[in-house]
């Protein structure tokens, strides 16, 4: 089950990166259209790509510990209380995203049934971009429930583990930088001292 979930988050991240790239492609297509005298509405299409990229990237970045989390309050609690807060946060977040994803799929289905199209030049059927939002929200809901189950089972959730690893890497880099600058200062101080003794 774990490899399947990790693969799901990776595919979601790759799709997010693809739609992010497509924003640039649509803008280039509009520029080419102006030069070659054909109409292409990059504003509308790039907006749909941005929405898909944002929602499809949620679960991947969450599990990688890349979401912005305010740990100012949580960090002051002892580990057992911190675990309870993480359980509460995952439960509330999971419930919110389950509700949101159900409503997003309902909206996409209704847009499909009623034949809703965007008001721009391209008249894109609304259900197509709404699928990206609904799918991303569903994968994020799965990610939050996954982390909730891990936390309830006594494991360190992936996002917290990734955060701790990132902080550790930053501290190591800072320590290495400080030791290098300290050695440089020491050697700079030694050279004038040697010159003075001569």
Tell me about this structure.
The protein has five helices and no strands. It has helices spanning 2-36, 42-63, 79-114, 127-152, 158-197. Helix 1 (2-36) packs antiparallel against helix 2 (42-63), helix 1 runs antiparallel to helix 4 (127-152) and helix 2 packs parallel to helix 4. It has 198 residues and is mainly alpha-helical. Helix content is 80%, strand content 0%.
Oligomer: single chain
Rg, please?
A: 25 Å
Beta-strand percentage?
under 5%
Terminal CA distance = 72 Å
Give a brief description:
With 198 residues, this protein is an all-alpha fold. It is built from 5 helices and no strands.
How is the topology of this model organized?
Layout: H1 2-36, H2 42-63, H3 79-114, H4 127-152, H5 158-197
Helix pairs in contact: 1-2, 1-4, 2-4, 3-4
Task: Name its key features.
about 200 residues; mainly alpha; about 0% strand
């Amino acid at each position: 089950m774990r490899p399947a979930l990790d693969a799901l988050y990776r595919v979601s991240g790759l799709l997010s990166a693809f739609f992010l790239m497509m924003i640039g492609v649509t803008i280039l297509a509009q520029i080419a259209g102006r030069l070659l005298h054909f109409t292409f509405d990059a504003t509308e299409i790039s907006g749909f790509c941005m929405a898909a990229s944002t929602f499809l990237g949620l679960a991947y970045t969450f599990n990688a510990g890349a979401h912005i989390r305010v740990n100012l309050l949580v960090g002051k609690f002892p580990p057992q209380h911190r675990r309870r807060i993480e359980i509460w946060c995952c439960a509330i977040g999971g419930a919110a995203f389950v509700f949101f994803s159900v409503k997003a799929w309902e909206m996409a289905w209704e847009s499909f049934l009623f034949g809703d199209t965007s008001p721009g030049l391209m008249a894109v059927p609304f259900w197509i971009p709404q699928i990206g939002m609904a799918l991303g929200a569903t994968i994020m809901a799965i990610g939050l429930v996954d982390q909730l189950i891990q936390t309830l089972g006594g494991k360190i959730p992936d996002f917290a583990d990734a955060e701790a690893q990132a902080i550790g890497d930053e501290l190591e880099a800072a320590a290495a930088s400080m030791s290098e600058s300290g050695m440089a200062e020491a050697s700079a101080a030694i050279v004038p001292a040697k010159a003075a003794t001569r």
